[in-house]
């Protein structure tokens, strides 16, 4: 299981940039535009499997992988924040530093487990939790420009069709083309 535990502190577009792109002069709709920026970022992240802005995620596993390596479900990953194993009595044991190695120069990133150094979970389900930091960085300048453009286009699409019924969640073809090189492929 994977869940976001800390949302990004910033978005890839500022409110002013979004207003300019949407050609909005008035500020009375700023709350809606801010919500649409976040929704657009999340749609691009969902389409690619990548975190655009720095954010923290928790990966929960039942057991350590037999081969010692497992792929992370989000990219890019910059750090392992911490890792814990739940004992049979419910207490948590910190995984020693150095027992997990992040291989971050690929997508998806991998975690390599030093088998003898990691404690074994004492429960059958969800006994291992690993917190990671994912995302291109903390500022919009860290995000690839074509992904920022995809966020702009999704924002415009959502703004234009905010009252329309039908399939407004489908990404426009231009957005699909922009995000295609970034999609994480799972085999």
From TrEMBL:
Domain of life: Bacteria
CDD domains for the chain: gp6
Protein name as annotated: Phage gp6-like head-tail connector protein
Species per Swiss-Prot/TrEMBL record: Azorhizobium oxalatiphilum
């Amino acid at each position: 299981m994977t869940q976001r535990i800390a949302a990004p502190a910033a978005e890839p577009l500022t409110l002013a940039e979004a207003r300019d792109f949407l050609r909005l002069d008035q500020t009375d709709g700023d709350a809606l535009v801010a919500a649409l920026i976040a929704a657009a970022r999340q749609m691009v992240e969902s389409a690619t499997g990548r975190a655009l802005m720095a954010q923290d995620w928790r990966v929960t596993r039942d057991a350590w992988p037999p081969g010692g390596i497992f792929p992370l479900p989000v990219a890019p990953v910059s750090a392992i924040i911490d890792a814990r194993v739940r004992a049979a009595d419910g207490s948590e044991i910190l995984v020693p530093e150095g027992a997990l190695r992040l291989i971050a120069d690929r997508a998806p990133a991998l975690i390599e487990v030093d088998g003898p150094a990691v404690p074994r979970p004492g429960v059958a389900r969800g006994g291992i939790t690993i917190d990671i930091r994912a995302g291109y960085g903390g500022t919009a300048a860290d995000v690839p420009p074509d992904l920022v453009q995809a966020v702009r286009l999704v924002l415009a699409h959502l703004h234009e069709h905010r009252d329309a019924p039908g399939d407004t969640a489908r990404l426009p073809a231009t957005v699909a083309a922009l995000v295609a090189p970034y999609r994480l492929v799972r085999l």
